[in-house]
Specification:
Structural class: alpha/beta
Largest sheet: 6 strands, parallel
CATH topology of the largest domain: Rossmann fold
Strand content: 15-25%
Radius of gyration: 24 Å
Helix content: 25-40%
CATH superfamily of the largest domain: Thiamin diphosphate (ThDP)-binding fold, Pyr/PP domains
Number of helices: 21
CATH architecture of the largest domain: 3-Layer(aba) Sandwich
Strand order of the largest sheet: 3-2-4-5-7-6
Distance between the termini: 75 Å
CATH class of the largest domain: Alpha Beta
Number of domains: 3
Shape: globular
Length: 550
C-alpha cells in the first residue's frame, strides 16, 4: 500500500516513541499536519519558531529523548535557528523538521528558498534533505540515532513540499537503537591509581546523557571516596546541593573560594562536560590545552577527548555508563582530603545564603529565602540569560535531577518557551520561569501558548527597566556613559491578564509571598512582576559600585 511522504514522516515519529511535537504551521508541510490529524501525537502550536525550537530543546534536555519541532521554510527556519544553536552548544538531542520549496524550483531563489545544509551546517550535528519519500523511514530513524549518540545535538531535516505529497511504497519504520559507550576496566583501574596518589582531588559534573539513576550513583561515588563535587554552568541538577560533598556550581561569577579550590587541585575528574569558556572562567580554572592539574576526562564522544584539554586519562564513556561502572569500586577508608571536602560544602552554604538587604523597596534575598521554603524539590526552574538569573543560580538549592532548564549558550528568551515545554512534559509538577524584563520579551508571546493549552506555569519577571548584564559591563568599561541599554516596559501583570492568565505586581518585599500564592491558586498561567531597583544589579554590588570601581 502506498503512502504519502507526510504520512511516512508521522509513522516514523510514532515508531520512535514521539508523543508530542512543537510547531508553527506552514503551507510547506501541510501534508505532515494532515497526517498528524489522524495521529495520537500531541501537536502544540506555538507563536514563533524560535520559541517552538526552544520548547523542543527543553523536552530533550529534561528527558534525554529528542524534542521534535516543525517549522516552515525561509523565515520560519531562520527564526528557529536560535533554538538549534542552543541545542548544539548545550549538547541536547533535538530534531527540527523544515518544510522546503518544491524540488522543481530549487536554485532559482524561489519564494523563501534557503540552502539549509549551508545555513545550519555549523550549528547542527547533521543536516539532511529528504528527496525521495521512500527513504523517510531510514533517514528519520537515523536522525534519532545521530541526535542521541556520542555528544548529543540537533538534527535538521528539510522536507521538499512535493516529496511530502508524493505516494510511494516504503518499509515500516523501526525505532532507533540507542548507542552506549562504556568505560573499560583498565581505565577504571588507572583512575583508582590516580585517586590513590592524589592529595587534593576535585570532581566536576556536566554535559548531558545523565539520568536519575546515574546522578544517584555519582552521589554514591562521592560518598565512597569523600570527593568534593562541583557542577558545571547551568548543570546544577546533577548533584544534591545539600549533600555534604557538594562544593558549588562552576559557572559565571563563581565563589572565589571554589575557584581557588579547583586551581589548587592536583587531580580533576571531569565527567560528561566539555568545560568550555564560561565554566572554565575563560580557560583559567583548567588551562587549555595543558592543564596544571592532572585531568581525567570522561565523555561519551571520543572527538571531545583531547579537543580542548589534553587529559592525563581519557575515558570514552557516557556519564551514565561511567557512574554505573565506577560506583562498584570501593573507595579508601579515610582519604586525606575528607576534611577539605567538608570545608568545601561549608563554603558553598555560606556563599548560597541570600543577603538580607539591598537597594530599593524590593529585597531579593528574603524573596529567595521564601521561595526556598515553599518550592517542592521536584519543581522545574526555567530561565534564559541575564544578571537576573544569578539570584536563582546562586541561591536556589537544587535537590534532584530533571529540575533545571537553562541554556549554557547564554541565549536570552529561553525561559518562557522552556516553561511551556517543561509543563507539557511534567503537567503535575510546578514549573517556574525565572526571567528578566528584556529576557522575557524575547519570547514572551509564548505565554499565549501556555494559556491555549492550559499549562499553568508561574513566570517571575525581575523588571529593572534595563538590559542589566550589558549595563553592568557598560558601567565598568564606560562609566556613566549610558547608551542602548534603557528599556520602557509594559505592565507585565496587565499583559498576563490580557492573554487570559493571572497577573501580579510586586513593589515591596512583603508583597511577594501573597502575590506568589495567589498566582499558584489561580490555576492559570501567571506572571508575577517584581519592580526591581536597577541598582540591585548583582547580589553583592550595585550599579554605582561598578561605576565607581568599588
Amino acid at each position: 500500500m502506498t503512502k504519502t511522504g507526510g504520512q511516512l514522516i508521522v509513522e516514523a515519529l510514532e515508531a520512535n516513541g514521539v508523543d508530542r511535537v512543537f510547531c508553527v504551521p506552514g503551507e510547506s508541510y501541510l501534508a505532515v499536519l494532515d497526517a498528524l490529524h489522524d495521529s495520537e501525537i500531541r501537536t502544540i502550536v506555538c507563536r514563533q519558531e524560535g520559541g517552538a525550537a526552544m520548547m523542543a530543546d527543553c523536552q530533550g534536555r529534561l528527558t534525554g529523548r529528542p524534542g521534535i519541532c516543525f517549522v516552515t521554510r525561509g523565515p520560519g527556519a531562520t527564526n528557529a535557528s536560535a533554538g538549534v544553536h542552543i541545542a548544539m552548544q548545550d549538547s541536547i538531542p533535538m530534531i527540527l523538521f523544515i518544510g522546503q520549496i518544491a524540488s522543481h524550483a530549487k536554485y532559482r531563489e524561489a519564494f523563501q528558498e534557503v540552502n539549509y545544509q549551508a545555513f545550519f551546517g555549523d550549528i547542527a550535528k547533521w543536516v539532511v534533505e529528504i528527496e525521495d519519500a521512500a527513504r523517510i523511514p531510514e533517514l528519520v530513524t537515523r536522525a534519532f540515532a545521530v541526535a542521541t549518540s556520542g555528544r548529543p545535538g540537533p538534527v535538521v531535516i528539510s522536507l521538499p513540499e512535493d516529496m511530502l505529497v508524493s505516494e510511494v511504497e516504503a518499509p515500516a519504520a523501526l525505532a532507533f537503537t540507542p548507542v552506549e559507550t562504556r568505560p573499560g576496566e583498565p581505565e577504571l583501574d588507572e583512575l583508582e591509581r590516580l585517586l590513590a596518589g592524589a592529595q587534593r582531588p576535585f570532581v566536576i559534573l556536566g554535559g548531558t546523557r545523565w539520568n536519575a539513576e546515574a546522578v544517584a550513583q555519582m552521589q554514591q561515588i562521592a560518598e565512597a571516596w569523600a570527593l568534593p563535587v562541583g557542577v558545571s554552568f547551568r548543570r546544577q541538577m546533577l548533584f544534591d546541593h545539600l549533600h555534604d560533598n557538594y562544593a558549588g556550581d562552576v559557572g559565571i561569577g563563581l565563589n572565589p573560594k571554589l575557584a581557588a579550590r579547583i586551581k589548587q587541585a592536583d587531580l580533576v575528574l571531569l565527567v560528561g562536560g566539555r568545560f568550555g569558556e564560561m565554566p572554565s572562567s575563560d580557560y583559567t580554572l583548567l588551562k587549555s590545552p595543558y592543564p596544571d592539574q592532572k585531568l581525567v576526562h570522561v565523555h561519551a564522544d571520543a572527538n571531545e577527548l583531547g579537543r580542548v584539554y589534553r587529559p592525563t586519562l581519557a575515558i570514552n564513556a557516557s556519564p551514565a555508563a561511567f557512574a554505573e561502572a565506577f560506583s562498584r569500586r570501593k573507595g579508601p577508608a579515610s582519604p586525606g582530603w575528607a576534611g577539605e571536602t567538608k570545608q568545601a560544602h561549608a563554603d558553598y552554604l555560606a556563599w548560597s545564603t541570600p543577603p538580607k538587604t539591598g537597594p530599593g523597596a524590593v529585597q531579593m534575598g528574603p524573596i529567595m529565602e521564601y521561595l526556598e521554603s515553599v518550592l517542592p524539590q521536584d519543581a522545574v526552574i526555567c530561565n534564559g540569560a541575564g544578571n537576573f538569573a544569578t539570584w536563582m543560580h546562586r541561591f536556589h538549592r537544587f535537590r534532584r535531577y530533571d529540575t533545571q532548564a537553562a541554556p549554557t549558550s547564554g541565549s536570552m528568551g529561553y525561559g518562557m518557551p522552556a516553561g511551556v515545554g517543561a509543563k507539557s512534559v511534567f503537567p503535575d509538577r510546578e514549573v517556574i520561569v525565572w526571567a528578566g524584563d528584556g529576557d522575557f520579551l524575547m519570547h514572551g508571546q509564548e505565554f499565549a501558548t501556555a494559556v491555549q493549552y492550559d499549562l499553568p506555569v508561574i513566570v517571575v519577571i525581575l523588571n529593572n527597566g534595563i538590559y542589566g548584564t550589558i549595563r553592568m559591563h557598560q558601567e565598568r568599561e564606560y562609566p556613566g556613559r549610558i547608551s542602548g541599554t534603557d528599556l520602557k516596559n509594559p505592565d507585565f501583570a496587565a499583559l498576563a491578564r490580557a492573554y487570559g492568565g493571572h497577573g501580579e505586581t510586586v513593589e515591596k518585599t512583603a508583597d511577594f509571598a501573597p502575590a506568589f500564592e495567589r498566582a499558584r491558586k489561580s490555576g492559570k498561567p501567571a506572571i508575577v512582576e517584581i519592580r526591581l531597583d536597577p541598582e540591585a544589579i548583582t547580589p553583592a554590588r550595585t550599579l554605582s559600585d561598578i561605576r565607581e570601581g568599588r
